Amino acid sequence: MASRLVRIIVATALAILFETAVIVGCTLATPDNAAPTFGMTCLAFAIVAFLGGRIPTAAAVVTGALELALILPGEGFAVSDPDHAIGLIGVITTGVMMAWYVARRDTLSAVLAADVAASRQAAEWRSVAHAELAHRLSNDLSILVSMASIKASDATSLEARDLLTDIGSRLVVLGRVYQRLEVRDRDTQDAIAARQFLLDLCGDLQLTTLSIGSISLRADIDESLRLPIRTLSLLGLVANEMLTNVRKHAFPNGEGGEVLLYLHRHTFRPDCVELMVTDNGVGFSSGDGKDRRGRSLLVLLAKQIQGTIAYARISGTTVATLQFALPAAAAIGAIGAQGE
To answer: CB of 8 within 8 A of CB of 57?
Structure first.
C-alpha cells in the first residue's frame, strides 16, 4: 500500500512538471501565438493519460488550466481575447475528457483484475475439492469392495456368494475407471482419447480376470477416437462386463483361447461407434440365470449411451457388439480432424 502511494505521488509530480515544461516552452517559443501552446498542451494531456493513471492525469489537467489562465492576457480565467478564451475552453474540455477516459480505463482494469483473481481462487478451490472428492470416492469404493468380499465369504448360498463376488469385481472396475479418468468436475463434452484408456483397462483385465488359463487378449482401437468422460466411463464398464462374460462362459473350465476387443467408428454410419468383443470359446447358451443377469446389465449400460447390444456366432467365433451414437462434441472433433 505504501509503495503504491509513493508511485502515485511520483507519477503525479512528474506529470505536473512535464505539463508545466510544455506550456512554458511553447509560450517562450511563440509568445505572440497561443495556438501552438494550446495544441501542445492537449498533446501533453494525451501523453500523461497514456502513461499515467487517473490521479496524475487529473493533476496535470488542473495545473495546465491554471497555468494557461495565468499566462494568457486577462484576469484569471476571464481571458480578454475571445480566441484565447475559446482555446482555453477547448484545452480544458480535452483535459477533462482525457481524465474521464483514464478513470474509466482504470476502473475497468480493476474490475477485470478482480474477476481474474476470483476465477483463479475458484479454480484453486475446485482443484482442492476435486482431489478430496476423488480421495473420498476411492476410500468409499474400497470399503464397499471389502464389505462385498466379507459378505461373500460368509454367504451360505452359492448364488448369493456369486452375486456378491460379481458386485465386488464391478466395484473394482468402477474404481479403475475413475482412477484412469482422474475424477474431476469437467464438462461432460470434454473429450478424452479412448485408445489408451481401454488399453490400460485391457492390461488390468489380462493380469486379473483373464489370467486364469491361457486367454490371449488383443485390442484394435481407433487412435483418433475421442469420447466424453461419461461415455468413456460407461464404455469401460461395458467392455469389462463383456470380457468378464467371455472368461466365465466362453472358457468356463479355464481353457485357453483368443479374445479381440475392437473399437472403431461404424463403417457405414459415421455418426456411430462400434465396440466388439470376439472369442473362439465354446459359444453362448440361451442363457441361464447368471448369463441373463449379465446381459441385462449390458443392456442397461448400453441404454445410458444410447446404444444397442447384439450377439452372434459366426464360424466358431462368438461376437458381442455394442453400437452407440457418437456424442456431438466428439463428432465435431472428428470432422475437424478429418479436415486437417
So the answer is: no
Q: Are strands 307-314 and 191-193 parallel, antiparallel or unpaired?
A: unpaired
Q: Is the model's pTM score more than 0.85?
A: no
Pairing relationship of beta strands 215-221 and 191-193 according to DSSP bridges: unpaired
Residues 6+ apart with CB under 8 A from 314: none
Please list, in sequence order, all residues whose beta carbon lies within 8 angstroms of the beta carbon of residue 192, skipping any fewer than 6 positions away: 181, 226, 227, 228, 229, 232
Q: Alpha-carbon torsion 54, 59, 60, 61, what sign? A: positive
- How many C-beta atoms lie closer than 10 Å to residue 288's C-beta? 9
Please give the biggest Cα pair distance in the chain: 114
Bridge partners of 154, per DSSP, are none
Helices marked H in the chain — which ranges? 2-29, 35-51, 54-71, 82-154, 158-181, 194-207, 229-245, 289-304, 328-339
Q: What is the pLDDT along the chain (340 residues), one digit of tens a residue?
A: 667 788 888 888 888 888 888 888 888 888 878 888 888 888 888 888 888 778 888 888 888 888 887 887 776 666 677 887 888 888 888 888 888 888 888 888 888 988 998 888 887 887 777 777 767 777 787 888 888 888 888 888 888 887 887 777 777 777 776 666 664 444 444 677 888 888 888 887 777 667 666 788 899 999 989 888 888 888 888 988 888 888 888 887 777 788 999 999 988 888 899 999 999 888 766 555 556 666 788 888 899 888 999 999 888 889 999 999 887 655 545 444 444 4
Q: Please name the residue that has the C-alpha cell 462368438.
A: 318
Strands 317-325 and 272-279: antiparallel
